Amino acid sequence: MSDTYISIKQYDGMNVTAQDDRRMYDMVQGNGIIRGCECTFVSGNTVHVNAGCGVVKGAYFEIEEHNETITLVASGTAKAQIYIHFDLSSATPLTIETETAATLTELEQDDDANYTNGTYDIQLCTMDVGTTAVSDVTNTFPIVTNALENMIGLVNKTTIFQPDGSIKDVYGDGHYTITDFPAGYICRVRLYGTDDTLLRTKTTSATASGNIVDTIS
């Protein structure tokens, strides 16, 4: 037996770095905005960005309410975008950037950024640009809701139930049969395979909204 070539991060006395945290959370959480950050036209070339927060490559961030100034064009029309720029190779790893161009630059999204000191961008909005003002400001940012929804692709089976016990959504193979739905939002569920073989019986409680979320790995 040897412990020379392996180490554990989450253990008494160990140093868990910010990089360790990002790598772990990046595995279960998507990239995008949790709340706020809506962009709206103010006047001329000014766009307002609401306060909000989000996650990029496992790192939680907050945005303060502020205005962004968009570069106009001397003639004709162009497009513009406001985006979050996450760059682990920079001394300023997180910034809000704007761009005006005939064709917008494709944003960088390095899925391995936490391992390569790479870059990951999140677009907040796009707009049309003229000589005196911008128009048609459109929010484009992805929404991050919770880790469970982002893990649907990592589990074999996910079912979401309505408060009355009926099935709302099903992901993956197999199917569920609800055996009973007693008072107190406790549900007993049986998971069957596609050949109707009973795989598992589980008792679970509902969320605050009444939906029951059950995952089988």
Describe the 3D structure.
The strands form 5 sheets. The chain has a 4-stranded antiparallel beta sheet with strand order 8-7-9-10, with no helix packed on it. Strands 1-4-5 form a 3-stranded antiparallel beta sheet. A 3-stranded antiparallel beta sheet has the order 2-3-6, with no helix packed on it. The chain has 3 helices and 16 strands. The protein has helices at 18-26, 113-116, 147-150, and strands at 32-36, 39-43, 46-49, 52-56, 59-63, 66-69, 78-87, 94-101, 119-129, 134-139, 157-161, 167-172, 175-180, 186-192, 198-205, 212-216. It is mainly beta and 217 residues long. Helix content is 8%, strand content 46%. The chain folds into 2 domains: 18-139, Triple-stranded beta-helix; 151-216, no CATH class. The chain starts with 17 loop residues before the first helix and ends with a strand. Residues 147-157 and 176-185 have low confidence and may be disordered. A hairpin with a 4-residue loop joins strand 9 (119-129) and strand 10.
Summarize the SSE layout with pairings.
Blueprint: H1 18-26, E1 32-36, E2 39-43, E3 46-49, E4 52-56, E5 59-63, E6 66-69, E7 78-87, E8 94-101, H2 113-116, E9 119-129, E10 134-139, H3 147-150, E11 157-161, E12 167-172, E13 175-180, E14 186-192, E15 198-205, E16 212-216
Antiparallel strand pairs: 1-4, 2-3, 3-6, 4-5, 7-8, 7-9, 9-10, 11-12, 11-16, 13-14, 14-15
